[in-house]
Amino acid sequence: MTEKKSVLIIDDEPNIRTLLTRILSLEDCDVTSFETAKEGIDVVDRKFFHVALVDVLLPDMNGIDLIRILRERSPETEVIVITAFATIHDGVKAIKNGAYDYIEKGKDEDEIIQKVKNAAEKVILKLRVKQLENVIGKNIGFAALTGKSRAFSDAVEVAKKVAATDTTVLLLGETGTGKELFAQAIHNSSKRKDKKFCAINCSAIPKDLQESELFGYVKGAFTGAIKDKKGIFEEADEGTIFLDEIGDMNLDTQAKFLRVLETNSFNKVGDTRNTHVNVRVISATNKDLKSGIEKGNFKNDLYYRLNTISIYLPALRERKDDLQLLINKFIENYSVKFGKNIFKANSEFISILQAYTFPGNIRELKNIIERALILCNGSELTAKDLPEEIFENNSHNISQSDSLKEIEKQHILKVYLENNHNKTITAEKLGIGSVTLYRKLKEYDVE
Fold first, then answer.
1. Which run of H or E residues covers position 395?
2. Residue 312 in 3-state DSSP?
3. What proportions of the chain, in percent to the nearest 5, are helix, strand and coil?
4. Which of 33, 157, 182, 249 to pair with 85, CA 20 to 30 A apart?
5. Range of the structural domain that residue 66 is part of
């Protein structure tokens, strides 16, 4: 069912209000109109509107100033300015000040209707995206994690058990396996869920800045320290801190970090006083920390403090049973984000991805689906929407463990796609009969 669009009209000319109300009501819009800016501002505090149509010249306020107030009171509402030809420069100014568009009085009704519809659709899309971001952001819990494979389910079960405690957790696994998502789920299922969840990637911070970023500094601690600054540990007090790529933390910072784990206190850079915090620590790495210990890059005692509970997140190639679920989830998410009516992928699309090794794991799959949704012109994703490197990697990454049947399938699908689904040419290139090709494609559930 199409969502009904709510429209607010603020114009001191009764004829304009009547005309706009009539044409928009016929388009199934819920229209409310007022004569003054004050009346419009008052109603925005009580009711949400997708679009506000505002006259640039009002008896009690300039329309340009009203835009700012409406945007402050209702940030999601799009404002369209109504202007006469003589004040069209005000319409342009209004757009620069945050208006979605302007409508010139006396213009064609269809143009007015289309601009209001476009603005309303933009708002509806923004609200849907916001809802999705809430699901994958601060509100995420274990129910939002997608997967049913044994390896993934085992990881979730351990995480659920540890969530109720304050124990340090070490998440292990390759890049892109969803370690931060797991950390968020643990936090949001813990007694600290109403407090802050702060995430930081140690590899993204230059080693000489890690200490000040994590623990903060006081004014005058070094050149450029013109005022006190909180570090992420202080920001996360009473909540959870997630330290990604912990293997890239330098040794000096590791020593200070170990002290926090042991005493719940630290000294800011340039400060002699102790700062006390109560923080739950979840860390993650894609490196072999034991190897780092042997090489002198990671402190042995810190490793054992972090590794009270370790959870291995399997690579996507180790949980292919979850691929279909993940594809469906990302298609739904990106269809809403891009406003596309695409909610499925055909069997060939899925079959090709089943044969792919996903070196970038779930993060790479998300990017593949996002790209495919953007490029897709039809009602479902097809192999034509996949990037070329998928097929190159599929042919170059055949392992010794692949059966001859799987190798044959990968090769047939690759040649079939390269020849734009032309079965006659594909059969010729493969050196097999058309009947054989038809049988093979049917076996692969490919049309």
1. helix 388-396
2. strand
3. 50, 15, 35
4. 33
5. 5-136
Nearest to residue 41, comparing CAs of 89, 79, 83? 79
Does one domain contain both 146 and 280? yes
Do 343 and 331 meet the contact criterion of CB atoms below 8 Å apart? yes
Pair 169, 283: CB distance under 8 Å: yes
Based on C-alpha coordinates, what's the Rg of the chain?
29
Residue in 217, 146, 206, 204 with CA at minimum distance from that of residue 175: 204
Bridge partner residues of 381 (DSSP): 345
360: its two tokens: 């970038």
428 half-sphere exposure, CB direction, 13 A CA radius: 7
Residue for token pair 């920001």: 235
- Give how many domains the chain has, as a whole number: 3
Digit-coded pLDDT (tens) for 31-90: 999 999 999 998 988 889 999 999 988 899 888 888 888 887 888 899 998 887 655 676
Least confident of 83-92, 103-112, 422-431: 83-92
Residues contacting residue 120 through CB under 8 Å, at least 6 positions apart:
5, 7, 29, 50, 51, 78
CATH value at residue 175: 3.40.50.300
**CATH assignment at residue 412:** 1.10.8.60
